[in-house]
Amino acid sequence: MYDHYWSPYQQGETAFYKAKRRAMLHNLWARIRRKPVQLLAFSKVEARLRLNIQHDRGVQDIALHQIVGSVGRATEFSKRFLPMRERSKERWSRVYAQAISPEGLPPIDVYQVDDTYFVIDGNHRVSVTRELGAKTIQAHVIELPTPITYRPDLTTQEVDLAYYRINTPGGINR
After folding, report:
1. What strands lie across the sheet with 136-143, from one edge to the other?
2. pTM for the structure as a whole
3. What fold characterizes domain 8-147?
4. Cα atoms in the Cβ-side hemisphere of radius 13 Å centred on 31
């Protein structure tokens, strides 16, 4: 007799392929509209904003929609944290299985820049948690203060102008 029960890992594989198909469609639509398809790379933001002070804010719930980038895996997930690479399937499916198990997932690690977050460790957990429909995730937060108001859509020129205004005589910090 055929067994209709799927293991949590098999459920994760199925969810992975659905998410990957959605990523392809979202990316196609973004390219048509000439919008970026990948997450923000933290290295680019760090260089532009001159982030050098850290404050450990401990573990807290953060909104998933405020996670906009990654420290090392910006090319592996779409802007919506959908998986973009086939090689992520095994890891993604294991994380999915753990997420739906009674023990759940451990907190992720993030940098906080203004009201946005960049994943240090836990990109697959963010992807799976979003796919499961959660609105928040537990995260160990390290805040990186910046003297300007940061938005993910700031251009390099806008960042430079903001720093110029801060650092010139009569600027906002003088």
Report:
1. 40-41, 67-70, 116-121, 108-113, 136-143, 55-63
2. 0.83
3. 3.90.1530
4. 8
